[in-house]
Prior knowledge:
By secondary structure, this protein is mostly helical. It folds into 2 domains: 1-84, Rna Polymerase Sigma Factor, Chain: A, CATH 1.10.1740; 86-169, Winged helix-like DNA-binding domain superfamily/Winged helix DNA-binding domain (Arc Repressor Mutant, subunit A, Orthogonal Bundle), CATH 1.10.10. The chain has 8 helices and no strands. The protein has helices at 5-24, 27-44, 54-75, 90-105, 108-118, 124-131, 135-153, 160-168. The longest helix is centred in the middle third of the chain and has 22 residues, at 54-75. The protein is globular.
Amino acid sequence: xxxxxxxxxxxxxxxxxxxxxxxxxxxxxxxxxxxxxxxxxxxxxxxxxxxxxxxxxxxxxxxxxxxxxxxxxxxxxxxxxxxxxxxxxxxxxxxxxxxxxxxxxxxxxxxxxxxxxxxxxxxxxxxxxxxxxxxxxxxxxxxxxxxxxxxxxxxxxxxxxxxxxxxxx
Length: 169
């Protein structure tokens, strides 16, 4: 039985929003694109084939819309892709800023695949469908992204104590 757009929204809108928030750095942009995703779903639900994995289908729409918006904004530069960083205690704020900078410094495909796995909770096979890559290529890019993020987060100005407090504090 084909899901309704309301059912798809209920099941997936938070994961889509979180993915877009991490890849755009802007709550407003993430919200706008999330809405656009479900407008597209509403318009294209008749073309949805149940053999498709619904999460892969939705995240592919989200990624395509984000890339389209990025290309448009690239032609018209906007403020930093790091987005708004909430005021936090200094140690957590340093960690959040470092993480945002590290994510922004990754290649776009590496960042997408990492965020789809870590924030979206998608499998390598699902990410491969979304990003048009083999599961082995996805695994390699996520590994490369983790190494790059680890290198930034283990730099001398971010202590391990700050990291632990930042994650659990």
